[in-house]
Amino acid sequence: MHRDERPRHLHRTVRVEGDCVSATAKEIACASAGAADFKVLGLVEKKTECPAATEPMQLMMALGRPYNVICGGKV
């Protein structure tokens, strides 16, 4: 399934490396990202797994999600 063909309810919850997210971890268009927003550089289990040059964003635990941290970089 092409990314734009995802069901509408998944557009805000599915994150992919290279996507952009707001400071509250909602998926946004990179073209409209502001200074407080991030580009997803990694999706990992623990903050310590993020590369040094990234800003880890801890997410609330969710069953079935293979990651709990978004490693982000400034857009």
Question: How would you explain this protein's 3D organization?
Answer:
Helices cover 0% and strands 28% of the residues. It has 75 residues and is an all-beta fold. It has a five-stranded antiparallel sheet, with no helix packed on it.
Quick tags:
single chain, 5-stranded antiparallel beta sheet, disordered N terminus, 0% helix, mainly beta, globular, 5 strands, 75 residues
Brief digest:
By secondary structure, the chain is mostly beta strands. It is 0% helix and 28% strand.
Topology:
Blueprint: E1 20-21, E2 27-28, E3 38-44, E4 55-58, E5 69-74
Antiparallel strand pairs: 1-2, 1-3, 3-5, 4-5
Reading the helices and strands in chain order gives: EEEEE
How large is the radius of gyration? 12 Å
Shape: globular
Mean pLDDT, to the nearest integer, reads 82
Q: Count of DSSP E strands?
A: 5
Tell me roughly what share of residues is in helical segments: under 10%
Largest sheet: 5 strands, antiparallel
Tally of helical runs: 0
> Strands across the major sheet, in which order?
2-1-3-5-4
First-last Cα distance: 26 Å
Uncertain runs: 1-12
Q: How much strand?
A: 25-35%
Which class best fits the helix and strand makeup?
mainly beta
